């Protein structure tokens, strides 16, 4: 039962969203996310996202309220080697456990490993949350798989500047784009077995 949200600044009441197993998804132009756009060559493209309320089983018999977020985007960042734009596919899945206060969040955050801790809010702005996560998901050193030689360089071969393997896919062409909603479904299946949401 998603409540009607403003289209431009969707928000959730985290307690209600979790209790009702709420779900929202959207596609935002990067141009609407100025802090993210500042990190990029330009603001073309979209952030696709989906968020789901869920219950997270505790070690004792109880449940905690939680949220699952999945998002993806193809963005263009300056290559650290040649400074030309390089297309980067960013994809992330995050789980949050909701707590009632900032002090609990700080304590729990230090211990949590498989999830983040988020303070419950009657008005959680999704734009802020997702923009923050998207910024943190950007690669630190984006670069092309194979750069054009810089102007003036001897272009005998491009092989000498091969990137080291395993650079977290930073330079990969964004051919294969996992659907964030499929990712979220997988995340939900894999994680909370016996959670009995719905
Ligand atoms: Zn490059």
User: What's the overall average pLDDT, rounded?
Assistant: 80
N-to-C series of helices and strands: EHEHEEEHEEHH
Rg is: 20 Å
Strand content: 25-35%
| Structural domain tally | 1
List the bound ligands: zinc ion
Strand count? 7
Helix-residue proportion: 10-25%
What are the low-pLDDT stretches, counting only 5+ consecutive residues below 50? 1-6, 155-160, 167-175, 191-198
Structural class: alpha+beta
Q: What would the principal axes of the Cα set say about the shape? A: elongated
Strand order of the largest sheet: 2-3-4-5-6
Query: Major sheet, described briefly?
Result: 5 strands, mixed
List the topology elements.
Blueprint: E1 11-12, H1 14-19, E2 23-29, H2 34-37, E3 46-57, E4 63-78, E5 85-99, H3 102-111, E6 116-119, E7 124-125, H4 126-137, H5 180-191
Parallel strand pairs: 5-6
Antiparallel strand pairs: 1-7, 2-3, 3-4, 4-5
The chain binds zinc ion.
